[in-house]
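Bench log. Compound arrived from synthesis this morning; before running ITC I wanted a structural hypothesis for how magnesium ion sits in the protein. Inputs:
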Amino acid sequence: MTGVAEQSVSAKVRDFLAGTKLLYIDGRFVDAASGRTFVTYDPATGEHLADVAHGEAADIDRAVRAARRAFDEGPWASMKPNERERLIWRVGDLLTERAADFGQLEALDNGKSAAIASAVDTAWAADVFRYYAGWATKIEGSTVNVSMPFAPGGQFHAYTLREPVGVCGLIVPWNFPLLMASWKLAPALAAGNTVILKPAEQTPLTALMLAEIFEEAGFPPGVVNVVPGFGDAGAALSAHEDVDKIAFTGSTEVGKKIVDAARGNLKKVTLELGGKSPNIVFADADFDAAVQGSLNAWLFNHGQCCVAGTRLYVENTIFERFTQAVAEAASKVKIGPGLDPTTELGPLVSQEQLDRVTGYLRDGLADGARALTGGRRWGETGYFVEPTVLVDVKPEFSVVREEIFGPVVAAMPFDADDGIVTAANSSIYGLAAGIWTRDISKAHCTARLLKAGSVWINQYNGFDTAMPFGGYKQSGWGRELGGAAIDLYTQTKAVNVAL
Ligand code: NAP
Ligand code: MG
């Protein structure tokens, strides 16, 4: 940590960062089996932030054995739903109490604004734990009125049980480290599973602080295990024969590797993958609201959002005025480190992401795109990129087709008479979409035609814990949040009794 960063964090965060951060396995903080550690960096400066025990296959195996024992032998499996409910609710309360610490730690490790990491990421994570705490007591099977045509005259009592899947591996990315972990942990635990969480190598810290909360809340050993490491640790978890399910959020490329790795024991897999989401602005939209909303669509979290609305389609009659307004708003965004309370746009998470995003910018500009604003790295320290609005783009450009995961939008005009849906749907992805119009009928008709798991009308990033979230096409398998997640962390047993 630099001197400035050190002054702006709480004593709790300073203490947390001192000393090597250990793996959390079977209710204890332990070194990696190899004794190795890795470094996590502050993306605002590129400087060393903390040393973290380096989890590898042997540590994943230890954690899986602990989770298996906790699942098979208890006390977790035999606990009453209302006992699980109380424990999970307590995690939500402790997160709320420590929201400022979590916000600062996330800001240091990921680069995002501490204020947002506290008020959005942590507050929402707490909400997710409370929402799923309530689900623990509401997971039900049903009775089935069977006909049993081959047993005429018999009497039967048939019903279903919803049971946990078992040992779940949860693999999360670096863009919303605490929040993505919470989206998986809370429903998995509410349904009675035991888990191994593998955070991203770039951002392992809030997951480890969360492990302290699970410990404090009183979860039995082995129910929650946290093993930071690299891709090989995720691969070991995905291939492990004693893991019953993998829930993954990250790139489509790694999602496909997970599907391959899961073949061995045909473990269940849910995937929340990449996107290249269309955001469609019709000429009759509320202009100012659409400008602000469109900016939020591609710039929130520095563009490091799977749902980022990075293909901005604007009806041709307002295209020029609208894109100028978006570019002007983007050029005024205050860039800086996440711990500075005036910062609106922080750094990208790593040198790798900086290289990737500036590489896309170079390719796009070489292809013939024009930057209305931005187009470059910002400053010489840290991994900052200027908010960039690209116009004069063609559908075949990589900046239009591929997920950039940085503060870059490609804007394209459309003619209302030609329809916009074909262009909007012309992507391998189908995660989210935005629509801006005052015409109710047009809004709903367009929403029906879009191939996307979430459609937001006259807003963007309109998430809620109770709303299912996930992808069409190559954006994923299954849904997170809402009751949908409970379905995917449980399996159904059919019981039929001859009376
Ligand atoms: P990623 O490689 O997909 O990382 C996601 C998680 O998977 C991390 O915990 C990662 O560990 C782990 N992992 C890596 N290789 C694995 C393997 N073979 N088996 C199992 N787990 C594995 O994403 P990234 O490399 O950090 O980012 C690359 C691009 O992915 C981004 O530029 C962006 O386009 C996309 N992305 C999408 C999302 C999303 O929310 N949809 C989130 C992040 C990134 P390590 O961190 O240790 O590699
Ligand atoms: Mg990675």
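What the model suggests: The chain has two domains: 12-273+476-496, 278-457. The chain has a mean pLDDT of 97.
ITC booked for Thursday regardless.
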